[in-house]
Specification:
- This protein has about 130 residues and is mainly β.
- About 5% of the residues lie in helices and about 50% in strands.
- The longest helix has 7 residues.
- About 40% of the residues are buried.
Length: about 130
């Protein structure tokens, strides 16, 4: 059974940093796109960031709203990935979900294609 478990959410102030982690189990995710989505109260779930790493290449893709502030990365064991969030804003407040898909990072971002979801972790940024 595949499971994705997020951690690292919390309450921070605007301008602070936070790092989210997602650990997957139940299969290896070699050549999968690994990413993050978020859902704010009263809004639809939206794409945040994705990455896809192989032995030859590494590609990342970001939503415009987080570009330059957020960075997605992957642990060498391939089944843990991170979202480093810097210069947080109140509008970043949301439940953050990690995701994995048999696709490219850009496809995850542009189509929302996801095969596996985490359960979500709350990030609250106070103004």
């Amino acid at each position: 059974q595949v499971q994705l478990v997020e951690s690292g959410g919390g309450l921070v102030q605007a301008g602070d940093s936070l790092r989210l982690s997602c650990t997957a189990s139940g299969r290896t995710f070699y050549s999968y796109a690994m990413g993050w989505f978020r859902q704010a109260p009263g809004k639809e779930r939206e794409f945040v960031a994705a990455g896809r790493w192989s032995s030859e290449t590494a590609t990342t893709y970001y939503a415009d709203s987080v570009k330059g502030r957020f960075t997605i990365s992957r642990d060498n064991n391939r089944n843990t990935w991170y979202l480093q969030m810097n210069s947080l804003k109140a509008e970043d407040t949301a439940v953050y979900y990690c995701a994995a898909a048999w696709s490219t990072a850009q496809a995850m971002g542009t189509t929302g294609q996801v095969h596996y979801w985490g359960q979500g972790t709350q990030v609250t940024v106070s103004a």
